[in-house]
Every structure is written in structure tokens, then in C-alpha cells.
Fold this sequence. Notes:
By secondary structure, the protein is mostly helical. The protein has helices at 2-23, 34-42, 54-63, 77-82, 85-94, 101-104, 120-138, 146-155, 161-166, 172-183, 198-213, 222-232, 236-243; strands at residues 65-66, 72-73. The chain folds into 2 domains: 2-107, no CATH class; 120-249. It is built from 13 helices and 2 strands; from the N terminus they run αααββαααααααααα. It is globular, with a radius of gyration of 20 Å. Residues 1-24, 186-196 and 260-278 have low confidence and may be disordered.
Amino acid sequence: MPGHFFRNAIVVTLACWSLGAIAAEPAAPVVRSPSQLQATLASSQPTPLDALTPYGKRRFVDSLRWDAKGQATFDATILVRELNPQQLAAALAFIGADAQLPKLAPNLVGKPLRMGAPTADAVARLQALERIAAELGANAGGDPSRLARRYMELFGRYLSESKLSELPPADLPLYFDAAALASRGAYGPQGHAVYYWKYPVRNLMQVYTALKDRGVDTRRTIDATVLRSLIDAKELNVARDFMRDKPHLRDLVVPSGKEPFGGGAVGRSDVRLAHAGP
């Protein structure tokens, strides 16, 4: 499709421009181990990671892992949310992950999502949920509903629209990430719904609406996460409706077929589905 080709051409050109601009600047040392990273950060010398917000920098650093060959693995969500193309290219080069740029650059739609510091309470709740997710990831035989139940224990008191409206704006992305994480644990190995399965996805939509109500541009990772969560929840009609006026999601495909759970678990009667627009 001509439009699709044009978009890809822009992305490639933008990525090449970013790398060229970085090449003209003094290169930061490439880090390939936790000890090297800590030494670099402790030296107080500027690094490309300084372009992140203080919370974003801590979160990204905490996600970094290196294998025996010095290859980095990391959660790219914060990078895509907070950085512009040049900053993203520099951050990836800093950890020797330049090859990831063509995959991540197309997600830089709209302005970066940079918010103030979240509260310590929101950070602690998300971290507690992530610990459960890590334990379940290390134990293939674990109870898949445990994550959703723990999510309800940590975040259940904030399920209502009125409660969400009282939260500081900077906490909302963390509440969104918590709901997105919990929704991954909502299904068993055969795709069958398990106890509490519908609540994380429903709450994801509630937090999404709260973000839109605060005027947050959700095109950086947020919209795509909602769509993937709806697809995973087999809420296919809601997913199609959600992506209809969001051209930046056109590369994502909603499967055809009926909704195996009958639909309606996160439907309009329960949630004000926020509609598109940057």
C-alpha cells in the first residue's frame, strides 16, 4: 500500500537521521554488564539515559539484563513512551542494542509521554505486582489466577471512576501498567478464563479513560497495549471499535471469529470507552 510504504520510508529516514546526528556527537561508552552500568552511572558522567525522567530512568535500569555474551534484554516501554527518535537511538546504542531501533522507531507516534514523579505508594504497588509476575514466570506450574487476585488486593480499592479521578496524574500510567500486567494472568494454558479474569481488562479500560480525561496523548504504547489486551481477552468487537479511529494501530490485526466468552465483559455498559484523537 502506498501509504504504508510512505510511513515506513519516513521511519527509516528518521532512524538514519537520528543515528547520523548521534555519530556527530561524542559517543557514550557502550555498557555490556551490570557492573559496567553501575560504574558508569556512579561516575556521574552524562549518559543517554539522562534523557528519561528520573522515574523512567530507574524503571529502565531495573529492567536491564545481560547474558554471558553481553547482549542486553530490557523493557522498551519506557524508552518508547518518553524519548524522541534521536534520544531513543542514543539510549539503544548506549546498551549495544542498536539493532532494536528499526523495530521500536515506528512506535514513536505523537509527542513523548513524560509525566511528573509518581507517588511512592503507586510505585510500591506496581513493584509488588511485578514480583508476583516474576515468580509466576519462573514457575510454569503456578496458578495463573494468582496474578489477577493479587492485582485485586493491591488495586481493587481504586476501581471506580471517582477514585481514579482523585489519583495524581503521574500515578495513572503505573495503574495502567498494573492492569495490563494483571490481564496477562487472566487465562489458563488452554485460553480458558480463570477466576477474576475480567477485572484487570475492565480496569485497564477505566484507567485508559481516566488518562484521556486528563488530556494525556495515549499514542505512545498506551493505545497498542489496550488493543492487545482486548484481543487477548477475546473482546474482539470492542477491539475493532477501539482501533477504528486510530490509524497508528493499523498494523495490528484483530482476529476474525466469534468472541468465545460471549463478549460484554468489558463492554459499554460497564466502562466509558474513550475514543480516539491525540
